[in-house]
Amino acid sequence: MKTAELYRFTRKKMKLLRSSYGFKCFKLVIWFVISFIFFVRFISRHQPSTNSLRTALISHSQSNVASRALSESNAGSIRRQRQGLLNDLKIYVYDLPAKYNADWLSDERCSNHLFAAEVAVHKALMNSNVRTFDPSEADFFFVPVYVSCNFSSGNGFPAIGHARSLLSSAVELISSELPFWNRSNGSDHVFVASHDHGACFHAMEDRAVANGIPEFMKNSIILQTFGVKHRHPCQDVEHVVIPPYVSPEKVLSMLSQSPVNGRRDIFVFFRGKMEVHPKNVSGRFYSRRVRTEILHKFGKNRRFYLKRHRFAGYQSEIVRSVFCLCPLGWAPWSPRLVEAVALGCVPVIIADGIRLPLESAVPWPEISLTVQEKDVGKLAGILDYVAATNLSLIQKRLWDPKVRRALLFHDELEDGDATWHILVALCERLNRSQRGSRLWSQ
């Protein structure tokens, strides 16, 4: 091949190669551009929208607010319904001779000790709008007999050995002077039994069970501090479980000095009877040995503030405490339940099978802890776990003023206080009875 021809051939090949390479590059560029456009569209379609996220958050927030508002509305509705019930309620209070009530008040302890609910309910009813002076229109009849104000000269504790005879005498009087007891056989009459085993009127359970509820009271309604979840002869009667009495004035005075959300430097508190060597009394050991176990197991634990001796200012210790032990004594309940709640200390209830006061009004599962008697030796671990998990939530619910108010009695009936909730419970029984009568008549 000639030189000129070879030159032309080489240029032609090079031109062709350049044309093929350029075409490939062009295709590569086009593919890249198209891919980039699709990628941008994909991102723009799938990235979260700020506006829609804001809308979702607002919607969620509004849902929570609506839920809380609905809950509060329901609670308010229930409260209005209960208040409506009380507006229609009528209670006749018997005007008994002073020997049944007023005479006992000469000892100031009568209206201030742990059994003084019998005095407080009477005072509140005397001054309330539910009281009627016309017995013919009454829904209930209140029999004001103070049986817990006979203080022993030996140990100073209330002695209730006279309770049955005093109550029997009162019933004889009201049934002979007015027709209302005999008309209903006492079923619409209300008594208070604010001591260890309620309407059985004895501090020792075996004696209380042996004596039973007085025959003349078995058809009546008993307001009693004693309550258990199992069948028990001392609550085998129509009854309402009420709080033991704690002075509201003392509570408010203490809270004015140390608010419920103040400093709490005592982790676990208990002050009361703890026997080192429990004695067998009538076949039973005090506190079923629970308090003795607490003393033996935690007496040297520096986080457990345990004291066996009385101290008049012990409420100042409760208001400094995170957890307050509430073990059973001879009976399952004690005023510590109310004192702990009122002063913002989480009650640790150690009393198997106890029925707590006003359970429909007080959210006990949310504001307290329950430890079985057999697990009392594990208290340290249990309380440590609660302190590390949901203590703040329990305290928040416990410190709600409505909870404190529901467990305290006042001389004047107050909306939402202990007597108010007792009256609500009576109203609910009255409504059930009336509905039952209507169904029976049909």
TrEMBL record:
UniProt superkingdom: Eukaryota
Protein name as catalogued: Uncharacterized protein
